[in-house]
Amino acid sequence: MSTAILGVTAVLSSLASPSADASFLDLESSLMRHTREQYAADLEGIRRRGVLRVLTLNNSSSYFITRGTQRGFEYELAEAFAKELGVRLAIVVPTSRGSLIEELLAGNGDLIAAGMTKTEARAEKVRFTRPLLSSPRVSRRIREP
């Protein structure tokens, strides 16, 4: 099993600093060098590098940009984690949900923050945290008319 923390060809990328606001273009250009570099590091390695690269999805709940401001549930959690570590946050958005784990294992991100369900197949490749949210699975058989 890989010991990667949970994670891309960057379609959309940005950089957040706990103490500074910048325009979207400044954020994008500042991060581009981080999206092309591959790393495999533990927590101390991330601290030394000074950047936490988070693989997430661009959607209405995980991560989005509105009026030049980055937002989203997973984004805000990742931002708080980066602040706690004293590092910058780099958001890396893959081309598809299906490529998140492959991009993480390739070293293109440090963790995945995208509401990913733990399955046996995924757990063979990466480690998962305790769930932040959970909802029951409900199935119902539709009767034939």
Describe this structure in words.
The longest helix has 13 residues, at 24-36. β3 and β4 (69-71) form a beta hairpin. 30% of the residues lie in helices and 17% in strands. Residues 1-22 and 29-35 have low confidence and may be disordered. With 145 residues, the chain is an alpha/beta fold. It has a single domain (12-114), classed as Periplasmic binding protein-like II (D-Maltodextrin-Binding Protein, domain 2, 3-Layer(aba) Sandwich), CATH 3.40.190.10. The strands form 2 sheets. Strands 1-5-2-6 form a 4-stranded mixed beta sheet, with helices on both faces. The chain has a two-stranded antiparallel sheet with strand order 3-4. The protein has helices spanning 24-36, 43-49, 73-85, 100-105, 120-123; strands at 12-16, 51-55, 64-66, 69-71, 88-93, 111-112. It contains 5 helices and 6 strands; from the N terminus they run βααβββαβαβα.
Quick recap:
The chain has five helices and six strands. The longest helix has 13 residues. It starts with 11 loop residues before the first strand and ends in a 22-residue tail after the last helix.
Would you list the SSEs in sequence order as H and E? EHHEEEHEHEH
Low-confidence residue ranges = 1-22, 29-35
What is the rounded distance between the termini? 48 Å
Count of strand segments = 6
- Percentage beta strand: 15-25%
CATH class bucket: Alpha Beta
CATH topology group: D-Maltodextrin-Binding Protein, domain 2
Number of domains: 1
SS-derived structural category? alpha/beta
Basic shape: globular
Number of helices: 5
CATH superfamily: Periplasmic binding protein-like II
Task: Order the strands across the largest sheet as they lie in space.
Answer: 1-5-2-6
